[in-house]
Amino acid sequence: MNKEEIREAMKKLNKTRKDVDHRSEDAATVTALLGSELFYACDWVFGFMPLHCEVDVTPVLQEALRAKRLALPRSNGDDTLTFVEVKSLDELAPGRFGILEPRAGAEVRPTSYSLIIVPALAYTPKRVRLGRGKGFYDRYLERFPDPVSIGVCRTWQLIEDLPVGIHDRQVDTLLCSGIRY
Length: 181
What we know:
Blueprint: H1 3-16, H2 23-34, H3 37-41, E1 44-46, H4 58-67, E2 69-75, E3 81-86, E4 92-94, E5 100-102, E6 114-118, E7 122-123, E8 129-130, H5 136-143, E9 148-153, E10 173-176, E11 179-180
Parallel strand pairs: 1-2, 1-6, 6-9, 9-10
Antiparallel strand pairs: 2-3, 4-5, 7-8, 10-11
């Protein structure tokens, strides 16, 4: 299958998994992330507001608000992401795709001490990522290669192999149900 066929299959699978309780699996990933040297050593967490089909990283965002600095993405009209500092999750509003995002604010740029948490439709054990097809995170990771990037996914989103294009960027590490790849 090509990437678009895999993407469509994963989107269909997402719909069938909507009512499945993923709390213990997500908690294992969150616990592993919060207990990692990566989280401990970072100054900024560049996170995301999870959709129902993504690992619920909200506890990580809350801990970043408490002990670090938190930036969340805002989608721009040119299909790029701008990360903006967030002081409270209450200040978010639905954005262009219905995903909660910062309403306004100046762009925050990651440094080598930042941690970028990257969502996906699927990952491989080799940390290859399948996004939603617009290239937002591929372009962002290309633009800012120095921070550590960590993917998070559920076990049913971990697949054996994915085709890789020249613009695809893999993450530095991956957490799936608390297991690091």
